[in-house]
């Protein structure tokens, strides 16, 4: 599995739970959306120093921090003739975390481990743009296994979007020891 494939899988799960929200990667620049919306951020990729070589396949255990920010107007509460907006950002994000832990979603994310690493934080006070906009944020550690095959330890895809790779890199085989003198 590749970093980009993991990010796409995470995006799809967020979209599955929030079908009526705008969901953008934090690196995408643009106009601030009307709530509800979510921003996603994938941090730097870390991998183990040495590959796992179990004789069947080679690869590296990889991980990165994944951040979700949820922006919402909250829930309208009527009081007598008036009303106010209740901050539901933390509750709403906690519900999503429970959804992530459900069996159907862990099955959908097979090969990807998602672990919350910090408490769900209420960041509503740092927003200055609207009186009734609330924000909650949570970080997760995402872990997965990236395959590394063949002599050059690359994926079997021919090339990448940055112009790197050759077909021979993905298909080159490890040289075999044909005879041993004792």
Report on the structure:
The protein is of the alpha+beta class and 182 residues long. 21% of the residues lie in helices and 33% in strands. The strands form 2 sheets. Strands 1, 2, 3, 4, 5, 8, 9 and 10 form an 8-stranded mixed beta sheet that branches. The longest helix is centred in the first third of the chain and has 15 residues, at 3-17. The model has no long low-confidence stretch (mean pLDDT 82).
Measured as a percent range, the helix fraction is 10-25%
Kindly provide the radius of gyration, computed on alpha-carbon positions and rounded to a whole number of angstroms. 22 Å
List low-confidence stretches.
none
The count of DSSP E runs of length 2 or more, i.e. the number of strands, is: 10
**Approximate shape:** elongated
Q: Topology as H/E string?
A: HEEEEEEEHHEEEH
Q: What portion of the residues fall into strands of 2 or more residues?
A: 25-35%
Total DSSP helices: 4
Largest sheet: 8 strands, mixed
Mean of the pLDDT scores?
A: 82
- Give the termini separation: 41 Å
Which class do the helix and strand fractions yield?
alpha+beta
Name the features:
182 residues, alpha+beta, eight-stranded mixed sheet, two-stranded antiparallel ribbon, 4 helices, 33% strand
Summed up, what is this model?
By secondary structure, the chain is α+β, with helices and mostly antiparallel strands. The protein is 21% helix and 33% strand.
